[in-house]
Amino acid sequence: MKTVSENRAFGGVQGVYTHASIACACDMTFGLFLPAQAEDGPVPLLWFLSGLTCTHENAMVKAGAQRWAAEAGIALVFPDTSPRGEGVANDPDFALGQGAGFYVNATRKPWAPHFRMWDYVTDELPRLLFNAFPLAEEVQGITGHSMGGHGALTIAMSFPGRFRSASAFAPICHPTSSDWGRPQFSAYLGTDESSWAAHDATLLMRRRGFDGPLLVDQGTSDQFLDKLRPEALAEAMASARQGGTFRMQKGYDHSYFFVSTFMEDHVSFHAQAFLG
Amino acid sequence: MKTVSENRAFGGVQGVYTHASIACACDMTFGLFLPAQAEDGPVPLLWFLSGLTCTHENAMVKAGAQRWAAEAGIALVFPDTSPRGEGVANDPDFALGQGAGFYVNATRKPWAPHFRMWDYVTDELPRLLFNAFPLAEEVQGITGHSMGGHGALTIAMSFPGRFRSASAFAPICHPTSSDWGRPQFSAYLGTDESSWAAHDATLLMRRRGFDGPLLVDQGTSDQFLDKLRPEALAEAMASARQGGTFRMQKGYDHSYFFVSTFMEDHVSFHAQAFLG
After folding, report:
1. Tens digits of per-residue pLDDT, A229-269?
2. Its biological function (chains A, B) (predicted)?
């Protein structure tokens, strides 16, 4: 693992690191914020998974999460959204290929050799983080924005007991019935739709739900509402009697201005769950 | 004036607007955050002047100021740092030309036709803002980062009575004796150094000071300390018996991680002054 940069921020350190990833068969970069409290021992870890076109950097510099994480003594990790680099497949469509890993393990050409973001985020990166940094593996939460909200919700529901709490900002809620989902799952996983169900938050909610508190925020003026399909997840949460809160935020769109506005609430929500 | 974008943020609106500037003889772009309180009448205005290489956008998306401005009911304006576009002179050095206006009126070729950022920020843009938006002209503060801290301090001291309060993040403190100052003032203003003094915060502090509270933050691990020369301004403030606070922040560098860390303090500082 190599240190790309470390900047003091809110009394802690905002670092950026690269490492050779086995899962993705390329170098991967991530951001990690460690609060001052990490000097005294392991701290809780909140995952932030980012959306289409993002790298590890966007949320790290625009979401304003460090302020609240520092106050609560929580570390933040910002993984990249896909493998990258020469020799890694790509597509002219911003919603496929580099910057658009969709947090799945691709099984189809040309994606299969590198696009294994599910394994990367759920297995390889956690092992690296808990080995290298003062992080409390037993106190984790997960959140994300848009495609990253999809990742956060599907991962949270797939690993019962791992995350104390889960939340999402304008997540892709029902990818198996959306233009942000169907084309990508076809490309990455093939056209047998039975393999898609494990990566659809609405379907997972209907089938098993999440074993902790859940918070979802969605702007009513989001320009991608038809692709995100919040109504499907809201309905599924209520039908499944999932404990949680689904908030439609009047006038907010899909941007980081929306994310940063409600970041304080999300970090507080996870911090509260971490106390339990 | 044309609206480029408007995003709901922290209960208010983060807008971006362009207009034909007479001072700079080109189109200019600025960001303006209006808090929810602006719906009920004019609100105080805090200026944020940005540093080298920045546009109107950097601080708007990375400094995290809107959160605190929304809470205090304060508007924020983020001007660009120079004229831009085809036909506008430029230089390969990032510290000269586009992105590096240094908040002066250039009098020398090839800069004089467009590089009139002093007039733009102190005269043209304020008139436009107070005409077009619900802003209280009698309640203004000014701050900025690096080259923008230089702009904020020199402008604050040059217009007694206009700003209730002034602050700066890692400002260029003494440009007439710095590599961030001497080459640019030579290019923009010519080699007669007497014309430079009006644009040097340390010299202005010695001569007249600021007629309100002043707050300066500077990181001790800033990679540009030799160019910023904080010691010159700190000495001048103390010698001039200027009311104010100069803080050296242990371990912080020149980045927006530093700026965002102390943004809450700066907005609170100005909000306090606005009550007076």
Report:
1. 999 999 999 998 888 889 989 999 999 999 999 999 999 99
2. Serine hydrolase involved in the detoxification of formaldehyde.
Residue A64 touches partner B, C-beta closer than 8 Å: yes
- Whether residue A24 contacts residue A114, with contact meaning beta carbons closer than 8 Å, is answered with yes
Nearest to A224 by CA among A186, A264, A180: A180
- Beta strand spans in A68-227 (E): 75-79, 135-144, 165-169, 214-219
CATH class as words, domain B2-275: alpha beta
| Contact check, Cβ <8 Å, B9/A260 | yes
Q: What is the pTM of this model?
A: 0.89
Helices (H), chain A: 57-62, 65-72, 117-119, 125-132, 147-158, 182-189, 201-207, 225-228, 230-239, 256-275
A130: helix, coil or strand?
helix
- Give the pair of three-digit tokens for residue A272: 């509260």
The span from the CA of B27 to the CA of B14, in Å, is 20
Domain locations in chain A? 2-275
Residue type (1 letter), B163 = F
* pLDDT for the residue A276: 75
